[in-house]
Design a protein that fits this description.
The chain is an alpha+beta fold and 323 residues long. It is built from ten helices and twelve strands. β11 (299-304) and β12 form a beta hairpin. The longest helix has 18 residues, at 64-81. It is globular, with a radius of gyration of 19 Å. Bound molecules: adenosine-5'-diphosphate and magnesium ion (MG).
Amino acid sequence: MSESVALAAGREFDLIRAFFQDANVPDDLLLAPGDDCVVLANGIALSTDLSMEGVHFRRDWISLEDIGYRAAMAALSDLAAVAARPVGMLVSIAAPADRAEDTITIMRGARAAAGESAAALLGGDLTRAPGALAIDVVVVGHTMQPIARSGAQVGDAVWVTGELGGAATAVDDWLHGRTPEAAAAKAYARPVARTAAARWLAEHARPSAMLDISDGLAGDVAHIAAASNVGIVLDIHALPLHPAAAARPDGHILALGGGEDYELCFTTNMKDMTEVTRGFAQRFGCRLTRVGEVVDDSGVLLRENGMLRPARGGFQHFQGPSR
Ligand code: ADP
Ligand code: MG
């Protein structure tokens, strides 16, 4: 088994580990498979992200333009996760024949996301699909100093950008036949990759490890724990809940386990983050919150009222809820 694919436990991740068994992985990569991007020796960062109708989105939840926008932002978010500068993207769409014209609107959304991130549309593929719509976005970026998931050290603090649980609250509402609050629906339909924020943090917050939160904070920090060979304690009371999540009794569960916030989570050994949090808020209009610490253990632990308990993971394909 390739030692380079250091993902957390789980069926989806066991499959990915199996893909790399005896695989031919170059040994001069700046960042190996298993991280948010792979980064080649020349600094080219690459990642791909597949959005499936009925799994990642539904047509009655969001517009065609939103579908393209969020698919592209989800992919761009993986460049942010390693603090890479976006260069471009290739977008592949599979669409049913009677909805071929929809691809124009979907691509308008994808291009808007690319434009906001200074990424060029470089190509893609277009094919007829027998049923559901699918969009795959390959992103290309550049960095000679990627921030890996594997650098967290015991004693580091764990920080997140922005607010968590907004997108998950909207999805939960839709799944239960309710209309989500506008702000929650927007968090889901129009996520914004923290592209510039990530590079600013790389310079000012000295992150030892970083990733983007696509599958829920608890599940995603489990990858930092696995890759860095450490444990991570998350303080339930410290979680910066999106207002729509905060209004619900299960808000912290949505923030921990529901994905698609596309915020960043990073670890750092900087003790005094006062200037960093102030500068970050000023520049990006977004807060930084300390949510836990790195400990000499393994996996993810939740601290609530002074008590520790193991966390259940985030969203996983092949073993999560039906979505
Ligand atoms: P993220 O949530 O950051 O997009 P994923 O959970 O999708 O990451 O993937 C985790 C890691 O596994 C990434 O490094 C990704 O490139 C790799 N991976 C996922 N699916 C495959 C696949 N089918 N073949 C090879 N590598 C894969
Ligand atoms: Mg990621």
